[in-house]
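Sample 1 of the test manifest.
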Amino acid sequence: MAKFLQRLQSPSGERPGAAWWAFVVIASLILALLPQTLGLAQLLDLSVVLVLALLALSMSFLWGYIGILSFGQTAFFGTGGYVYAVAAMNFDSTTLPFLLGIVLPMLLAAVLGYFMVYGKLSDIYFSVMTLVITLIMNKAMRATSGSQYVVGDVRLNGQNGIPGVPPLQVPWNPEVTLFIDHVYYLAAALLILVYIGLRLLLTTSFGRVMIGIRENEQRIELLGYDARRYKLLAFILSGALAGLSGTMFAIWGNFVAPEMFGLDRAAEVIIWVIVGGKATLIGPIVGVGIIQYLTSWLGMQGVGQVTLVLGVILIVFVLAFKDGLVPTLGNLLLRLVGADPESRIKKGSDLEKGSDL
Amino acid sequence: MKDVAGTTLIETRQLVKSFGGVRATDTVDFILKEGELRCLIGPNGAGKSTFFKLLTGQIAPTSGNILFDGDDVTGLSSFEIARQGIGIKNQKPDVFDGLSARENLWLAAQFDTDKKTADRRVERVVDELKLGAFVHKLVGELAHGQRQWVEIGMVMARSPRLILLDEPSAGMDQEERVRTAELLKALNTTTTIVVVEHDMQFIKRIADVVTVFHRGKILREAHVDVVLRDPEVRNVYLGRTEVV
Ligand SMILES: Nc1ncnc2c1ncn2[C@@H]1O[C@H](COP(=O)(O)OP(=O)(O)O)[C@@H](O)[C@H]1O
Ligand SMILES: [Mg+2]
Protein backbone atom coordinates (compact mmCIF):
# COMPACT_ATOMS: atom_id res chain seq x y z
CA MET A 1 0.00 0.00 0.00
CA ALA A 2 2.69 2.45 1.01
CA LYS A 3 4.63 1.67 -2.11
CA PHE A 4 1.58 2.23 -4.23
CA LEU A 5 0.87 5.54 -2.56
CA GLN A 6 4.47 6.56 -2.89
CA ARG A 7 3.90 7.01 -6.55
CA LEU A 8 1.56 9.95 -6.32
CA GLN A 9 3.97 12.41 -7.82
CA SER A 10 4.77 13.62 -11.27
CA PRO A 11 4.93 11.00 -14.00
CA SER A 12 8.17 9.15 -14.66
CA GLY A 13 9.26 7.09 -17.60
CA GLU A 14 9.01 3.69 -15.95
CA ARG A 15 6.48 1.08 -17.01
CA PRO A 16 3.42 1.18 -14.80
CA GLY A 17 3.30 -1.74 -12.40
CA ALA A 18 0.64 -4.27 -11.48
CA ALA A 19 -0.84 -1.90 -8.91
CA TRP A 20 -1.50 0.65 -11.60
CA TRP A 21 -3.18 -1.87 -13.87
CA ALA A 22 -5.27 -3.06 -10.95
CA PHE A 23 -6.31 0.53 -10.36
CA VAL A 24 -7.29 0.89 -14.00
CA VAL A 25 -9.34 -2.30 -13.95
CA ILE A 26 -11.14 -1.35 -10.76
CA ALA A 27 -11.86 2.17 -11.99
CA SER A 28 -13.17 0.73 -15.26
CA LEU A 29 -15.42 -1.70 -13.41
CA ILE A 30 -16.82 1.07 -11.26
CA LEU A 31 -17.49 3.21 -14.32
CA ALA A 32 -19.12 0.25 -16.03
CA LEU A 33 -21.39 -0.56 -13.10
CA LEU A 34 -22.38 2.97 -12.11
CA PRO A 35 -25.27 3.22 -14.61
CA GLN A 36 -27.00 0.41 -12.67
CA THR A 37 -27.37 2.67 -9.69
CA LEU A 38 -27.81 6.06 -11.29
CA GLY A 39 -30.85 7.68 -12.85
CA LEU A 40 -30.67 9.19 -16.32
CA ALA A 41 -30.22 12.72 -15.03
CA GLN A 42 -27.30 11.70 -12.85
CA LEU A 43 -25.84 9.72 -15.71
CA LEU A 44 -26.05 12.80 -17.89
CA ASP A 45 -24.16 14.80 -15.24
CA LEU A 46 -21.53 12.15 -14.89
CA SER A 47 -21.12 11.84 -18.66
CA VAL A 48 -20.18 15.47 -19.05
CA VAL A 49 -17.60 15.10 -16.30
CA LEU A 50 -16.01 12.28 -18.29
CA VAL A 51 -16.17 14.32 -21.50
CA LEU A 52 -14.66 17.40 -19.91
CA ALA A 53 -12.01 15.26 -18.23
CA LEU A 54 -10.63 14.67 -21.73
CA LEU A 55 -10.30 18.43 -22.11
CA ALA A 56 -8.58 18.67 -18.73
CA LEU A 57 -6.16 15.91 -19.73
CA SER A 58 -5.36 17.73 -22.97
CA MET A 59 -4.09 20.63 -20.90
CA SER A 60 -2.50 18.77 -18.00
CA PHE A 61 -0.58 16.42 -20.24
CA LEU A 62 1.00 19.37 -22.04
CA TRP A 63 1.76 21.12 -18.80
CA GLY A 64 2.72 18.15 -16.65
CA TYR A 65 4.71 16.20 -19.24
CA ILE A 66 6.47 18.74 -21.38
CA GLY A 67 6.00 21.97 -19.46
CA ILE A 68 3.93 23.93 -21.98
CA LEU A 69 1.15 25.95 -20.42
CA SER A 70 -1.71 26.34 -22.88
CA PHE A 71 -4.54 28.53 -21.63
CA GLY A 72 -6.48 28.07 -24.84
CA GLN A 73 -7.27 24.38 -25.18
CA THR A 74 -10.85 25.56 -25.65
CA ALA A 75 -9.86 26.68 -29.16
CA PHE A 76 -9.62 23.01 -30.13
CA PHE A 77 -12.50 21.98 -27.90
CA GLY A 78 -14.82 24.46 -29.61
CA THR A 79 -13.50 23.62 -33.05
CA GLY A 80 -14.13 19.92 -32.42
CA GLY A 81 -17.69 20.62 -31.31
CA TYR A 82 -18.53 22.90 -34.22
CA VAL A 83 -16.90 20.64 -36.78
CA TYR A 84 -18.91 17.68 -35.57
CA ALA A 85 -22.14 19.70 -35.41
CA VAL A 86 -21.82 21.22 -38.87
CA ALA A 87 -20.58 18.04 -40.52
CA ALA A 88 -23.16 15.78 -38.87
CA MET A 89 -25.97 18.08 -39.96
CA ASN A 90 -24.65 18.14 -43.51
CA PHE A 91 -23.79 14.48 -43.96
CA ASP A 92 -25.97 11.43 -43.63
CA SER A 93 -23.57 9.51 -41.48
CA THR A 94 -21.98 10.70 -38.22
CA THR A 95 -18.86 8.56 -38.40
CA LEU A 96 -16.89 10.90 -40.62
CA PRO A 97 -18.02 13.98 -38.66
CA PHE A 98 -16.83 12.30 -35.46
CA LEU A 99 -13.39 11.73 -36.98
CA LEU A 100 -13.30 15.24 -38.45
CA GLY A 101 -14.09 16.56 -34.98
CA ILE A 102 -10.74 15.14 -33.92
CA VAL A 103 -8.66 15.65 -37.05
CA LEU A 104 -9.52 19.27 -37.84
CA PRO A 105 -8.68 20.59 -34.35
CA MET A 106 -5.50 18.55 -34.63
CA LEU A 107 -4.64 20.29 -37.91
CA LEU A 108 -5.47 23.64 -36.37
CA ALA A 109 -3.11 22.81 -33.51
CA ALA A 110 -0.47 21.80 -36.05
CA VAL A 111 -0.66 25.13 -37.87
CA LEU A 112 -0.90 27.34 -34.79
CA GLY A 113 1.67 25.25 -32.95
CA TYR A 114 4.06 25.44 -35.86
CA PHE A 115 4.07 29.23 -35.85
CA MET A 116 4.24 29.46 -32.08
CA VAL A 117 6.93 26.84 -31.56
CA TYR A 118 9.10 27.63 -34.56
CA GLY A 119 8.47 31.34 -34.13
CA LYS A 120 10.48 30.97 -30.90
CA LEU A 121 7.70 32.34 -28.75
CA SER A 122 8.83 32.33 -25.16
CA ASP A 123 6.79 30.29 -22.70
CA ILE A 124 4.73 33.13 -21.35
CA TYR A 125 3.88 34.45 -24.80
CA PHE A 126 2.93 30.96 -25.85
CA SER A 127 0.44 30.77 -22.97
CA VAL A 128 -0.98 34.20 -23.66
CA MET A 129 -1.17 33.51 -27.38
CA THR A 130 -3.23 30.35 -26.91
CA LEU A 131 -5.65 32.31 -24.76
CA VAL A 132 -5.88 35.11 -27.31
CA ILE A 133 -6.57 32.59 -30.07
CA THR A 134 -9.50 31.03 -28.27
CA LEU A 135 -10.93 34.46 -27.41
CA ILE A 136 -10.68 35.52 -31.05
CA MET A 137 -12.46 32.35 -32.11
CA ASN A 138 -15.12 33.03 -29.51
CA LYS A 139 -15.62 36.54 -30.88
CA ALA A 140 -15.63 35.33 -34.46
CA MET A 141 -18.20 32.65 -33.73
CA ARG A 142 -20.44 35.16 -31.96
CA ALA A 143 -20.34 37.33 -35.06
CA THR A 144 -21.93 34.67 -37.26
CA SER A 145 -25.57 35.39 -36.50
CA GLY A 146 -26.28 36.73 -40.01
CA SER A 147 -28.00 34.46 -42.47
CA GLN A 148 -24.97 34.65 -44.77
CA TYR A 149 -22.97 32.52 -42.32
CA VAL A 150 -23.89 29.06 -43.45
CA VAL A 151 -21.80 25.96 -43.94
CA GLY A 152 -23.63 23.67 -46.35
CA ASP A 153 -27.16 23.55 -44.96
CA VAL A 154 -26.26 24.71 -41.50
CA ARG A 155 -26.55 28.24 -40.15
CA LEU A 156 -23.92 29.07 -37.56
CA ASN A 157 -26.33 31.29 -35.63
CA GLY A 158 -23.82 33.47 -33.81
CA GLN A 159 -24.17 33.51 -30.06
CA ASN A 160 -27.33 31.44 -30.14
CA GLY A 161 -25.30 28.44 -31.17
CA ILE A 162 -26.46 25.45 -33.18
CA PRO A 163 -29.26 23.38 -31.66
CA GLY A 164 -30.33 19.95 -32.74
CA VAL A 165 -26.87 18.49 -33.30
CA PRO A 166 -27.51 14.89 -34.43
CA PRO A 167 -26.74 12.08 -32.01
CA LEU A 168 -23.96 9.70 -32.88
CA GLN A 169 -24.92 6.72 -35.02
CA VAL A 170 -23.48 3.27 -34.66
CA PRO A 171 -20.99 3.26 -37.56
CA TRP A 172 -22.02 -0.14 -38.91
CA ASN A 173 -25.72 0.39 -38.29
CA PRO A 174 -26.74 4.04 -38.91
CA GLU A 175 -30.33 3.26 -37.97
CA VAL A 176 -29.26 3.02 -34.35
CA THR A 177 -28.23 6.21 -32.57
CA LEU A 178 -26.59 6.49 -29.18
CA PHE A 179 -28.84 7.28 -26.26
CA ILE A 180 -27.82 8.90 -22.96
CA ASP A 181 -26.47 5.71 -21.40
CA HIS A 182 -24.58 4.78 -24.56
CA VAL A 183 -22.94 8.18 -24.66
CA TYR A 184 -21.93 7.61 -21.07
CA TYR A 185 -20.30 4.28 -21.90
CA LEU A 186 -18.55 5.77 -24.92
CA ALA A 187 -17.22 8.69 -22.88
CA ALA A 188 -16.06 6.35 -20.12
CA ALA A 189 -14.32 4.06 -22.60
CA LEU A 190 -12.62 6.97 -24.36
CA LEU A 191 -11.43 8.45 -21.08
CA ILE A 192 -9.98 5.16 -19.92
CA LEU A 193 -8.25 4.59 -23.23
CA VAL A 194 -6.81 8.09 -23.30
CA TYR A 195 -5.68 7.73 -19.71
CA ILE A 196 -3.91 4.46 -20.45
CA GLY A 197 -2.47 5.82 -23.68
CA LEU A 198 -1.03 8.92 -22.06
CA ARG A 199 0.49 6.90 -19.26
CA LEU A 200 2.10 4.45 -21.66
CA LEU A 201 3.34 7.31 -23.81
CA LEU A 202 5.71 8.13 -20.98
CA THR A 203 7.45 4.79 -21.30
CA THR A 204 8.38 5.52 -24.92
CA SER A 205 11.48 7.48 -25.79
CA PHE A 206 9.21 10.24 -27.06
CA GLY A 207 7.64 10.45 -23.61
CA ARG A 208 10.97 10.49 -21.84
CA VAL A 209 12.28 13.26 -24.03
CA MET A 210 9.12 15.23 -23.25
CA ILE A 211 9.91 14.93 -19.55
CA GLY A 212 13.47 15.94 -20.31
CA ILE A 213 12.17 19.09 -21.96
CA ARG A 214 10.05 19.84 -18.92
CA GLU A 215 13.09 19.39 -16.70
CA ASN A 216 15.70 21.19 -18.79
CA GLU A 217 15.09 22.15 -22.37
CA GLN A 218 18.61 23.46 -22.82
CA ARG A 219 20.16 20.13 -21.88
CA ILE A 220 17.80 18.27 -24.20
CA GLU A 221 19.04 20.43 -27.08
CA LEU A 222 22.67 19.92 -26.09
CA LEU A 223 22.07 16.18 -26.33
CA GLY A 224 21.00 16.61 -29.94
CA TYR A 225 17.21 16.56 -29.65
CA ASP A 226 15.23 19.16 -31.54
CA ALA A 227 12.97 20.24 -28.68
CA ARG A 228 10.71 22.21 -31.01
CA ARG A 229 9.70 19.06 -32.84
CA TYR A 230 8.67 17.39 -29.61
CA LYS A 231 6.77 20.45 -28.46
CA LEU A 232 4.91 20.70 -31.73
CA LEU A 233 3.99 17.00 -31.70
CA ALA A 234 2.81 17.24 -28.11
CA PHE A 235 0.75 20.30 -28.95
CA ILE A 236 -0.85 18.53 -31.91
CA LEU A 237 -1.71 15.57 -29.72
CA SER A 238 -3.26 17.86 -27.14
CA GLY A 239 -5.27 19.56 -29.90
CA ALA A 240 -6.62 16.19 -30.98
CA LEU A 241 -7.57 15.35 -27.40
CA ALA A 242 -9.34 18.67 -26.88
CA GLY A 243 -11.08 18.20 -30.22
CA LEU A 244 -12.27 14.76 -29.15
CA SER A 245 -13.60 16.29 -25.97
CA GLY A 246 -15.44 19.00 -27.92
CA THR A 247 -16.93 16.45 -30.30
CA MET A 248 -18.18 14.37 -27.42
CA PHE A 249 -19.51 17.51 -25.76
CA ALA A 250 -21.56 18.31 -28.88
CA ILE A 251 -22.86 14.75 -28.96
CA TRP A 252 -23.62 14.80 -25.26
CA GLY A 253 -25.60 18.05 -25.34
CA ASN A 254 -26.89 17.98 -28.95
CA PHE A 255 -25.83 21.59 -28.96
CA VAL A 256 -22.82 23.81 -29.63
CA ALA A 257 -22.38 27.51 -28.85
CA PRO A 258 -19.56 30.07 -28.84
CA GLU A 259 -19.20 29.59 -25.07
CA MET A 260 -17.20 26.48 -25.93
CA PHE A 261 -14.41 28.88 -26.94
CA GLY A 262 -15.11 31.37 -24.15
CA LEU A 263 -13.06 32.79 -21.33
CA ASP A 264 -15.20 31.14 -18.65
CA ARG A 265 -14.61 27.71 -20.11
CA ALA A 266 -10.91 28.39 -20.67
CA ALA A 267 -10.53 29.52 -17.06
CA GLU A 268 -12.42 26.46 -15.85
CA VAL A 269 -9.94 24.16 -17.55
CA ILE A 270 -7.11 25.85 -15.70
CA ILE A 271 -9.01 25.55 -12.41
CA TRP A 272 -9.70 21.83 -12.92
CA VAL A 273 -6.06 21.13 -13.59
CA ILE A 274 -4.73 23.24 -10.74
CA VAL A 275 -7.25 21.93 -8.22
CA GLY A 276 -6.69 18.31 -9.19
CA GLY A 277 -2.94 18.62 -9.69
CA LYS A 278 -1.15 18.81 -12.99
CA ALA A 279 1.53 16.37 -12.00
CA THR A 280 -0.69 13.32 -12.18
CA LEU A 281 -3.08 12.23 -14.88
CA ILE A 282 -5.79 11.30 -12.41
CA GLY A 283 -5.66 14.70 -10.70
CA PRO A 284 -7.28 16.73 -13.48
CA ILE A 285 -10.02 14.11 -13.85
CA VAL A 286 -10.80 14.41 -10.15
CA GLY A 287 -10.59 18.20 -10.53
CA VAL A 288 -13.26 18.21 -13.21
CA GLY A 289 -15.54 16.06 -11.08
CA ILE A 290 -15.21 18.23 -7.99
CA ILE A 291 -15.63 21.53 -9.80
CA GLN A 292 -18.54 20.34 -11.94
CA TYR A 293 -20.46 19.04 -8.94
CA LEU A 294 -19.57 22.07 -6.89
CA THR A 295 -20.78 24.36 -9.65
CA SER A 296 -24.13 22.66 -9.97
CA TRP A 297 -24.50 22.42 -6.19
CA LEU A 298 -23.77 26.15 -5.83
CA GLY A 299 -26.29 26.79 -8.60
CA MET A 300 -28.94 24.81 -6.73
CA GLN A 301 -28.20 26.73 -3.52
CA GLY A 302 -28.99 29.89 -5.45
CA VAL A 303 -25.43 31.26 -5.32
CA GLY A 304 -25.32 33.73 -8.16
CA GLN A 305 -21.60 34.36 -8.32
CA VAL A 306 -20.41 30.86 -9.14
CA THR A 307 -17.45 32.19 -11.10
CA LEU A 308 -16.40 34.25 -8.12
CA VAL A 309 -16.51 31.23 -5.86
CA LEU A 310 -14.47 29.23 -8.36
CA GLY A 311 -11.94 32.06 -8.47
CA VAL A 312 -11.57 31.92 -4.71
CA ILE A 313 -11.14 28.16 -4.85
CA LEU A 314 -8.42 28.61 -7.44
CA ILE A 315 -6.56 31.09 -5.26
CA VAL A 316 -6.83 28.84 -2.21
CA PHE A 317 -5.43 25.94 -4.17
CA VAL A 318 -2.61 27.90 -5.69
CA LEU A 319 -1.59 29.20 -2.28
CA ALA A 320 -2.34 26.26 0.00
CA PHE A 321 -2.01 23.09 -2.08
CA LYS A 322 0.18 24.14 -4.91
CA ASP A 323 0.66 20.57 -6.10
CA GLY A 324 -3.08 20.07 -6.39
CA LEU A 325 -5.44 17.77 -4.57
CA VAL A 326 -4.31 14.35 -5.72
CA PRO A 327 -0.58 14.74 -4.98
CA THR A 328 -1.33 16.49 -1.68
CA LEU A 329 -3.74 13.78 -0.56
CA GLY A 330 -1.24 11.21 -1.74
CA ASN A 331 1.45 12.63 0.53
CA LEU A 332 -1.05 12.84 3.38
CA LEU A 333 -1.97 9.20 2.96
CA LEU A 334 1.69 8.32 2.87
CA ARG A 335 2.17 9.94 6.25
CA LEU A 336 -0.84 8.07 7.60
CA VAL A 337 0.57 4.72 6.58
CA GLY A 338 3.84 5.71 8.20
CA ALA A 339 6.00 6.38 5.16
CA ASP A 340 7.93 9.59 4.79
CA PRO A 341 6.90 11.10 1.48
CA GLU A 342 10.33 12.59 0.95
CA SER A 343 12.19 9.40 1.73
CA ARG A 344 11.19 7.74 -1.51
CA ILE A 345 13.93 9.80 -3.04
CA LYS A 346 16.58 8.16 -0.91
CA LYS A 347 15.39 4.59 -1.26
CA GLY A 348 16.38 4.11 -4.82
CA SER A 349 14.38 2.96 -7.78
CA ASP A 350 13.61 4.88 -10.89
CA LEU A 351 10.04 5.13 -9.78
CA GLU A 352 10.64 7.33 -6.80
CA LYS A 353 9.50 10.50 -8.31
CA GLY A 354 7.18 8.64 -10.55
CA SER A 355 3.49 8.52 -10.24
CA ASP A 356 1.71 5.65 -11.76
CA LEU A 357 -1.46 7.62 -11.60
CA MET B 1 45.73 9.38 -30.00
CA LYS B 2 48.24 12.15 -29.37
CA ASP B 3 48.19 12.95 -33.04
CA VAL B 4 48.52 16.65 -32.39
CA ALA B 5 50.08 17.31 -35.75
CA GLY B 6 46.93 15.89 -37.34
CA THR B 7 43.83 17.46 -38.75
CA THR B 8 42.12 20.50 -37.34
CA LEU B 9 38.96 19.50 -35.51
CA ILE B 10 37.60 22.86 -34.53
CA GLU B 11 38.60 26.33 -35.53
CA THR B 12 37.28 29.84 -34.95
CA ARG B 13 38.02 32.78 -37.21
CA GLN B 14 37.78 36.33 -35.92
CA LEU B 15 35.06 35.20 -33.54
CA VAL B 16 33.28 38.05 -31.71
CA LYS B 17 30.49 38.08 -29.16
CA SER B 18 29.30 41.40 -27.74
CA PHE B 19 26.89 41.78 -24.85
CA GLY B 20 25.84 45.39 -25.11
CA GLY B 21 29.14 47.20 -24.87
CA VAL B 22 31.09 44.26 -23.48
CA ARG B 23 33.08 42.12 -25.87
CA ALA B 24 32.96 38.81 -24.06
CA THR B 25 34.70 37.18 -27.02
CA ASP B 26 36.98 39.48 -28.94
CA THR B 27 38.26 38.43 -32.39
CA VAL B 28 39.34 34.98 -31.29
CA ASP B 29 41.30 32.80 -33.70
CA PHE B 30 41.44 29.39 -32.12
CA ILE B 31 42.64 26.11 -33.58
CA LEU B 32 42.33 22.69 -32.00
CA LYS B 33 43.76 19.54 -33.55
CA GLU B 34 42.08 16.19 -33.40
CA GLY B 35 43.27 14.26 -30.34
CA GLU B 36 44.32 17.22 -28.22
CA LEU B 37 43.55 17.70 -24.56
CA ARG B 38 43.59 21.48 -24.24
CA CYS B 39 43.13 23.56 -21.11
CA LEU B 40 41.57 27.01 -21.15
CA ILE B 41 42.44 29.26 -18.27
CA GLY B 42 41.85 32.89 -17.45
CA PRO B 43 40.41 35.01 -14.65
CA ASN B 44 36.68 35.16 -13.97
CA GLY B 45 34.91 37.08 -16.68
CA ALA B 46 37.67 36.41 -19.22
CA GLY B 47 35.12 34.93 -21.61
CA LYS B 48 35.82 31.20 -21.32
CA SER B 49 32.22 30.11 -20.77
CA THR B 50 31.00 32.45 -23.47
CA PHE B 51 33.50 30.91 -25.87
CA PHE B 52 32.17 27.42 -25.07
CA LYS B 53 28.60 28.57 -25.55
CA LEU B 54 29.49 29.97 -28.94
CA LEU B 55 31.12 26.71 -29.96
CA THR B 56 28.00 24.75 -29.02
CA GLY B 57 25.43 27.10 -30.52
CA GLN B 58 23.94 28.10 -27.18
CA ILE B 59 24.50 31.70 -28.21
CA ALA B 60 25.06 33.10 -31.68
CA PRO B 61 28.24 35.03 -32.46
CA THR B 62 28.11 38.72 -33.28
CA SER B 63 30.56 38.09 -36.10
CA GLY B 64 33.17 35.62 -37.21
CA ASN B 65 33.04 31.93 -38.01
CA ILE B 66 33.21 28.54 -36.39
CA LEU B 67 34.42 25.53 -38.34
CA PHE B 68 34.01 21.97 -37.08
CA ASP B 69 35.84 19.28 -38.99
CA GLY B 70 36.15 21.65 -41.94
CA ASP B 71 32.44 22.53 -42.06
CA ASP B 72 31.16 25.99 -41.24
CA VAL B 73 28.80 25.48 -38.30
CA THR B 74 28.34 29.17 -37.48
CA GLY B 75 24.74 29.93 -36.60
CA LEU B 76 23.60 26.31 -36.27
CA SER B 77 21.36 25.66 -33.30
CA SER B 78 22.70 23.71 -30.37
CA PHE B 79 20.92 20.47 -31.23
CA GLU B 80 22.42 20.54 -34.73
CA ILE B 81 25.89 21.11 -33.36
CA ALA B 82 25.37 18.35 -30.81
CA ARG B 83 24.52 16.02 -33.69
CA GLN B 84 27.80 16.94 -35.40
CA GLY B 85 29.55 15.41 -32.41
CA ILE B 86 30.24 18.11 -29.85
CA GLY B 87 29.30 17.44 -26.25
CA ILE B 88 29.48 20.01 -23.47
CA LYS B 89 29.27 20.18 -19.73
CA ASN B 90 28.34 23.74 -18.89
CA GLN B 91 29.79 25.54 -15.91
CA LYS B 92 26.49 25.56 -14.07
CA PRO B 93 25.29 21.96 -13.72
CA ASP B 94 22.85 21.39 -16.53
CA VAL B 95 20.99 18.19 -15.77
CA PHE B 96 17.45 16.87 -15.38
CA ASP B 97 16.91 17.44 -11.68
CA GLY B 98 13.53 15.72 -11.52
CA LEU B 99 14.83 12.46 -13.01
CA SER B 100 17.11 9.81 -11.59
CA ALA B 101 20.77 9.73 -12.57
CA ARG B 102 20.06 6.67 -14.67
CA GLU B 103 17.25 8.39 -16.52
CA ASN B 104 19.55 11.34 -17.14
CA LEU B 105 22.16 9.08 -18.69
CA TRP B 106 19.53 7.18 -20.60
CA LEU B 107 18.22 10.31 -22.28
CA ALA B 108 21.73 11.06 -23.41
CA ALA B 109 22.47 7.52 -24.53
CA GLN B 110 19.31 6.73 -26.46
CA PHE B 111 19.41 9.76 -28.75
CA ASP B 112 20.59 8.06 -31.92
CA THR B 113 20.05 4.41 -31.13
CA ASP B 114 17.70 1.68 -29.96
CA LYS B 115 16.86 0.88 -26.35
CA LYS B 116 19.26 -2.06 -26.07
CA THR B 117 22.31 -0.12 -27.20
CA ALA B 118 21.24 2.78 -25.03
CA ASP B 119 21.06 0.51 -21.98
CA ARG B 120 24.53 -0.82 -22.76
CA ARG B 121 25.93 2.69 -23.06
CA VAL B 122 24.37 3.64 -19.75
CA GLU B 123 25.91 0.60 -18.05
CA ARG B 124 29.29 1.42 -19.56
CA VAL B 125 29.19 4.99 -18.28
CA VAL B 126 27.94 3.91 -14.84
CA ASP B 127 30.89 1.52 -14.64
CA GLU B 128 33.52 3.91 -15.94
CA LEU B 129 32.42 6.77 -13.71
CA LYS B 130 31.49 4.50 -10.78
CA LEU B 131 28.06 6.07 -10.47
CA GLY B 132 26.48 2.86 -9.14
CA ALA B 133 26.01 4.20 -5.63
CA PHE B 134 23.63 6.95 -6.63
CA VAL B 135 22.38 5.98 -10.05
CA HIS B 136 18.81 5.56 -8.80
CA LYS B 137 18.66 8.82 -6.92
CA LEU B 138 17.08 11.96 -8.22
CA VAL B 139 19.78 14.16 -9.63
CA GLY B 140 18.27 17.16 -7.88
CA GLU B 141 19.10 15.47 -4.57
CA LEU B 142 22.76 14.84 -5.33
CA ALA B 143 25.77 16.77 -4.10
CA HIS B 144 27.28 19.26 -6.50
CA GLY B 145 30.23 17.02 -7.31
CA GLN B 146 27.97 14.07 -8.04
CA ARG B 147 25.80 16.17 -10.30
CA GLN B 148 28.94 17.09 -12.20
CA TRP B 149 29.73 13.42 -12.61
CA VAL B 150 26.27 12.74 -13.93
CA GLU B 151 26.64 15.54 -16.43
CA ILE B 152 30.06 14.31 -17.52
CA GLY B 153 28.48 10.88 -17.87
CA MET B 154 25.76 12.29 -20.09
CA VAL B 155 28.37 13.84 -22.33
CA MET B 156 30.33 10.59 -22.48
CA ALA B 157 27.24 8.51 -23.19
CA ARG B 158 26.86 10.30 -26.49
CA SER B 159 30.46 9.41 -27.51
CA PRO B 160 31.07 12.78 -29.16
CA ARG B 161 34.19 13.62 -31.13
CA LEU B 162 34.83 16.76 -29.14
CA ILE B 163 34.10 17.20 -25.45
CA LEU B 164 34.01 20.64 -23.83
CA LEU B 165 34.12 20.69 -20.04
CA ASP B 166 33.54 23.97 -18.23
CA GLU B 167 35.10 23.71 -14.78
CA PRO B 168 34.45 20.00 -14.30
CA SER B 169 36.26 19.72 -10.97
CA ALA B 170 34.48 22.59 -9.25
CA GLY B 171 32.83 21.37 -6.08
CA MET B 172 34.82 18.14 -6.05
CA ASP B 173 37.12 17.09 -3.25
CA GLN B 174 40.78 16.34 -3.84
CA GLU B 175 40.26 12.64 -4.45
CA GLU B 176 37.49 13.31 -6.93
CA ARG B 177 39.71 15.77 -8.74
CA VAL B 178 42.45 13.23 -9.14
CA ARG B 179 39.90 10.76 -10.44
CA THR B 180 38.53 13.34 -12.86
CA ALA B 181 42.01 14.09 -14.15
CA GLU B 182 42.69 10.40 -14.67
CA LEU B 183 39.36 9.99 -16.38
CA LEU B 184 40.06 12.82 -18.77
CA LYS B 185 43.42 11.36 -19.68
CA ALA B 186 41.79 8.01 -20.38
CA LEU B 187 39.01 9.66 -22.40
CA ASN B 188 41.58 11.54 -24.39
CA THR B 189 42.85 8.33 -25.92
CA THR B 190 39.72 8.34 -28.06
CA THR B 191 38.30 11.85 -27.83
CA THR B 192 39.44 15.42 -28.29
CA ILE B 193 38.85 17.45 -25.14
CA VAL B 194 38.91 21.10 -24.07
CA VAL B 195 38.74 21.84 -20.34
CA VAL B 196 38.22 25.13 -18.56
CA GLU B 197 39.89 24.90 -15.17
CA HIS B 198 41.14 27.04 -12.33
CA ASP B 199 42.91 24.38 -10.30
CA MET B 200 46.57 24.52 -11.26
CA GLN B 201 47.38 21.09 -9.82
CA PHE B 202 44.63 19.69 -11.98
CA ILE B 203 45.90 21.48 -15.05
CA LYS B 204 49.44 20.33 -14.55
CA ARG B 205 48.22 16.78 -14.15
CA ILE B 206 46.49 16.70 -17.52
CA ALA B 207 47.54 19.58 -19.72
CA ASP B 208 49.90 19.89 -22.54
CA VAL B 209 49.08 23.10 -24.37
CA VAL B 210 47.22 25.77 -22.42
CA THR B 211 45.28 28.69 -23.87
CA VAL B 212 44.95 31.78 -21.70
CA PHE B 213 41.92 34.03 -22.13
CA HIS B 214 41.89 37.59 -20.92
CA ARG B 215 39.14 40.12 -21.57
CA GLY B 216 37.69 38.06 -24.37
CA LYS B 217 41.01 37.69 -26.19
CA ILE B 218 43.55 34.92 -26.34
CA LEU B 219 46.46 36.27 -24.35
CA ARG B 220 48.85 33.32 -24.64
CA GLU B 221 48.92 29.84 -25.99
CA ALA B 222 51.80 27.58 -25.15
CA HIS B 223 52.93 24.56 -23.16
CA VAL B 224 51.69 24.59 -19.61
CA ASP B 225 55.17 25.11 -18.11
CA VAL B 226 55.86 28.06 -20.37
CA VAL B 227 52.50 29.67 -19.73
CA LEU B 228 52.71 29.36 -15.98
CA ARG B 229 56.10 31.11 -15.97
CA ASP B 230 54.93 33.90 -18.24
CA PRO B 231 55.03 37.16 -16.27
CA GLU B 232 52.07 38.66 -18.10
CA VAL B 233 49.94 35.60 -17.48
CA ARG B 234 50.92 35.63 -13.82
CA ASN B 235 50.08 39.26 -13.71
CA VAL B 236 46.57 39.07 -15.15
CA TYR B 237 45.53 35.71 -13.90
CA LEU B 238 47.52 34.14 -11.20
CA GLY B 239 48.56 37.09 -9.16
CA ARG B 240 49.95 34.51 -6.77
CA THR B 241 53.41 33.07 -7.01
CA GLU B 242 52.89 29.86 -5.08
CA VAL B 243 50.94 28.15 -7.82
CA VAL B 244 53.84 27.82 -10.19
N1 LIG C 1 24.29 36.53 -21.20
C1 LIG C 1 25.15 37.53 -20.91
N2 LIG C 1 24.71 38.82 -20.94
C2 LIG C 1 25.56 39.84 -20.67
N3 LIG C 1 26.84 39.67 -20.36
C3 LIG C 1 27.34 38.42 -20.31
C4 LIG C 1 26.52 37.29 -20.57
N4 LIG C 1 27.27 36.17 -20.46
C5 LIG C 1 28.51 36.58 -20.13
N5 LIG C 1 28.55 37.94 -20.05
C6 LIG C 1 29.74 38.72 -19.74
O1 LIG C 1 30.76 38.29 -20.56
C7 LIG C 1 31.99 38.28 -19.88
C8 LIG C 1 32.59 36.90 -19.95
O2 LIG C 1 31.87 36.02 -19.11
P1 LIG C 1 32.16 34.47 -19.08
O3 LIG C 1 32.27 33.95 -20.45
O4 LIG C 1 31.16 33.81 -18.20
O5 LIG C 1 33.58 34.42 -18.39
P2 LIG C 1 34.37 33.24 -17.70
O6 LIG C 1 33.67 31.96 -18.00
O7 LIG C 1 35.73 33.28 -18.28
O8 LIG C 1 34.39 33.52 -16.24
C9 LIG C 1 31.71 38.74 -18.46
O9 LIG C 1 32.00 40.13 -18.41
C10 LIG C 1 30.24 38.50 -18.32
O10 LIG C 1 29.68 39.42 -17.43
MG1 LIG D 1 32.89 30.57 -16.78
